[in-house]
Design goal:
With 359 residues, the protein is mostly helical. A two-stranded antiparallel sheet has the order 1-2. A hairpin with a 2-residue loop joins strand 3 and strand 4. The longest helix has 18 residues. The protein is globular. It has a single domain, classed as Glycosyltransferase, CATH 1.50.10. Bound molecules: beta-D-glucopyranose. Beta-D-glucopyranose binds next to helix 2.
């Protein structure tokens, strides 16, 4: 490894492990009050990065935590499924939250809790954990994954907050992709029959999430969002060489990449809408899959340049802001941009791993 790689590899590992609680939960960011929780989404990618680098124990502890959170909410899940099947709306207390305290409790403050992608990503990461660690699922994994699968199968058509915790009244292409992968993973683990539902989700994406030969952020939008990369990598709803995916990546490059940093979407105004480290890692991950390691390496070097002297990566870099006037508003409201963000470190570790050909 080059020295900068080695330094960022070591600090990323250290930051992730130091911020894994006794319970197994990963704290999204220790220095940002709103992020002192554990998210299914962030945690799933972090656990996957640990599995890729051989730290199966850390990943297993996270998955044990997540499975416990889900299992202890069996009643909520069953009730939610019954209500949705009878066309009743769900309220805040009748859903699985997007983030929990490290002890597995619901947060007290108001939060955009109804998000479905995190559970899909968790199922995908759990399957990969078992494959990469060559271990059998525990009874708790079997029970929790089945509950999560049933929940997603019943709820996938409902509008919910997206992975950026916004637009609650829309149906998001990324969310559908993660549910698709989650259900496929759960079917693989438990031999559950999810085929019909998986096909319906893909059909829905074909019918509602494509405009002018590319995928769109959500149904009834014409915008792209960098998270659309997830359709190919890692969720494999479509192969990375599919022309629809290629057209989407071209648009992401054209509209959302500045220098080698990646915006979430063009109207993003959170901290002014800067460049997200984890998305640069994600784009690099995609390029490795299509064999363009030169571009992937350039993106990796950009990530490395954003780390501070202590080897920490922030959530975003306030450059090429979409809405410069909104930056200060967020700094005053919540303090400086979150750093270190564990999920950003995980995406660096994933990119480093796939570039080394170890995946
Ligand atoms: C992001 C989410 C992320 C959370 C914790 C939010 O600002 O939009 O995607 O899960 O932070 O990192």
């Amino acid at each position: 490894m080059r020295s900068i790689e080695e330094k960022l590899y070591n600090s990323s590992m250290k930051i992730i492990l130091q911020n894994q609680a006794e319970s197994g939960a990963y704290i999204a960011c220790p220095n940002f009050k709103r992020y002192r929780y554990s998210w299914f989404r962030d945690g799933a990618f972090i656990a996957y990065s640990m599995d890729l680098w051989g730290n199966h124990q850390s990943s297993r502890r996270f998955h044990n935590w997540a499975a416990r959170v889900i299992e202890t909410r069996e009643g909520i899940i069953e009730r939610a499924i019954r209500k949705v099947e009878s066309n009743f709306p769900l309220n805040e207390n009748e859903i699985i939250h997007t983030r929990y305290t490290v002890d597995g409790e619901e947060g007290k403050e108001q939060w955009e809790n109804f998000q479905l992608d995190g559970l899909g990503t968790w199922l995908w990461a759990l399957k990969n954990h078992l494959l990469l660690s060559e271990t059998e699922p525990s009874a708790s994994f079997i029970k929790a994954s089945r509950l999560a699968g049933d929940y997603l199968q019943a709820l996938w058509r409902l509008p919910c907050y997206d992975l950026w915790e916004e637009f609650p009244h829309k149906i998001h292409t990324y969310t559908l992709a993660s549910i698709y992968a989650g259900l496929e993973s759960e079917a693989f683990l438990n031999s559950t029959d999810r085929i019909r539902c998986i096909e319906q989700i893909k059909e829905f994406i074909y019918t509602n999430s494509i405009i002018d030969g590319h995928f769109v952020k959500h149904v009834q939008s014409s915008e792209v969002d960098s998270s659309l990369l997830g359709l190919a990598v890692p969720y494999s709803v479509f192969p990375p060489e599919d022309s629809l995916i290629k057209n989407t990546v071209l648009l992401i490059e054209e509209k959302l990449v500045s220098g080698n940093g990646v915006h979430r979407y063009s109207e993003d105004s959170y901290y002014g809408g800067g460049l997200w480290i984890l998305l640069t890692g994600w784009l690099g991950w995609y390029y490795v899959q299509v064999g363009n390691t030169e571009r992937a390496n350039r993106l990796k070097r950009w990530m490395e340049k954003q780390s501070d002297s202590g080897g920490q990566l922030p959530e975003q870099i306030p450059q090429f802001l979409n809405r410069p006037s909104c930056y200060q508003y967020w700094v005053e409201k919540c303090g400086p941009v979150a750093k270190p963000l564990l999920w950003a470190h995980a995406k660096y570790l994933i990119l480093l791993n796939v570039l080394s050909g170890k995946e």
